[in-house]
Amino acid sequence: xxxxxxxxxxxxxxxxxxxxxxxxxxxxxxxxxxxxxxxxxxxxxxxxxxxxxxxxxxxxxxxxxxxxxxxxxxxxxxxxxxxxxxxxxxxxxxxxxxxxxxxxxxxxxxxxxxxxxxxxxxxxxxxxxxxxxxxxxxxxxxxxxxxxxxxxxxxxxxxxxxxxxxxxxxxxxxxxxxxxxxxxxxxxxxxxxxxxxxxxxxxxxxxxxxxxxxxxxxxxxxxxxxxxxxxxxxxxxxxxxxxxxxxxxxxxxxxxxxxxxxxxxxxxxx
Length: 270
Description:
Elements: H1 3-11, E1 24-31, E2 37-40, E3 45-59, E4 62-66, E5 70-74, E6 80-95, E7 108-111, H2 114-123, H3 135-149, E8 156-158, H4 163-174, H5 182-189, H6 193-203, H7 208-225, H8 230-236, H9 242-253, H10 257-260
Antiparallel strand pairs: 1-6, 2-6, 3-4, 3-5, 3-6, 4-8, 5-7
Helix pairs in contact: 2-3, 4-5, 7-8, 8-9
């Protein structure tokens, strides 16, 4: 049995505890759009990284889009599903909750440094048991330390509960090129402009304008991952010119959309 199959055997089943004397365990797999991962949860925390391809991770709290230079942190006991855009080379690190380094209550997308990426790729070659002291345990600590300082990326669309905010969100997410005014969006919500802004601050923890930019960024990443041109994506998400879209993308992601998927091993903000 291969090491990855051993890891899968250890972790298969609903809410199977790690039951290991190791703090981290890696698993490598490949999924296409026709192989989504349905809703499930683990006793272990997870760091889910795509060595190539783009993932969409959903929980009851929202949607996280995960390009190759990023990973999504999923706390223990968090029910989540994963959809793929193209073929995704999944590299998942399972972490004992007592060893985990990030917030135990909510997901987040983090930037994967060159060191963290190399550590993730190395850990998936470990077996389901290794010495408490030694190079494997040292590398596990490197992963924990890198996660503690990893930059959080703006690639999250929170689930909105208020019906007025949801009405606006569903319409805009269907058509992110919609250029109607804030007053028009408020009318759709059945609220004043001030109330609309207050709703998004409360529900999404950001302004309505920032939330709109977030939607456009997420939809743009999906389009680029599908192989569509920068110009086509820019127009589809509501930018009048490709240059305006490129400026927004560079500000958010640290590089241009044309170069973003060229080399997933680079640190996007180096």
